[in-house]
Amino acid sequence: MIETFEGSSGDGDAVWRNSLHDQAGRTSDLYANCVGAYHAFDSLPRLVEGLRLLSINAGLVSARAGDYGRSVRVLTHFATESVVRLHEAVPKMLALKRDTYETAAGVMRAINDIGKLEAAGTLILRNSGPEAAALIRMGAAWRSRVQHLGRAAGHLAATNDQLVAMVKVAREVMLQTELIAANIAIEATSAGPWEAELTAIADTIREKVDELRTMVDEAGRRLRNATETIVGLVAFGHRTQ
User: Fold this and answer.
1) Secondary structure string (H, E, C) spanning 186-236
2) Which of 171, 175, 184, 225 could crosslink 33 through cysteines, CB 3.0-4.6 Å?
């Protein structure tokens, strides 16, 4: 079997393979995007705890407010449910984070290996010609590594899909909590002597919502960038099968 290459026989500029050239810009940022999606949520445990305490405080104030706080008590119940959803997501994210770190590192190692094989193949081509036995063996090693890359990229796609689902939950909690804060602020205007306390709680909840929005938007951007590259790598890996 004679390996295909770019250039003509005996050409000192001939290139055996340069398969990742078109994706080089994206693959260089793949690991950073995968890891960055999780780093966006580094402060999530602290945020969850803050929301939990705010929910408790809102419940205590509404209880002291008696009839003035009846509606707020209902709202704090929904706020507590939202916090629980976020709290349950934290350990799942940590487990996915470890898996993603390992898999993304494996993908980057495979890309690096493929680059080295292609560079070595080019040297053999230029020095010994396209029919060199070493070049044929290099081709087999190249195909094996490309297939491994495709499988690793497929696994990375699966873990990213799971994080996408969790980001969706975080976005839903963000929107729900934002609505709860707005309603608490509205109820505070008719809460008599408890207005100032309830308004302060609503304002603080809004601040937490803004923090969560920043996390969700950053994670979403990172995931979109990573997904575009991963899809290309999966397709590349399938081409040699």
Assistant:
1) HHHCCCHHHHHHHHHHHHHHHHHHHHHHHHHHHHHHHHHHHHHHHHHHHHH
2) 225
Whether residue 221 lies inside any domain: the answer is yes
Instruction: Tell me how many domains the chain contains.
Output: 1
Q: Which domain holds residue 218?
A: 24-239
| The model's pTM | 0.85
pLDDT at 192: 85
- Whether 75 is covered by a domain: the verdict is yes
d(CA 204, CA 135): 66
**pLDDT class for 241, splitting at 50, 70, 90?**
low
Mean pLDDT of the chain: 88
pLDDT tens-digit profile of 58-85?
888 888 888 888 888 888 888 888 889 8
Token readout for 88 is 């349950």
Nearest to 122 by CA among 31, 18, 40: 18
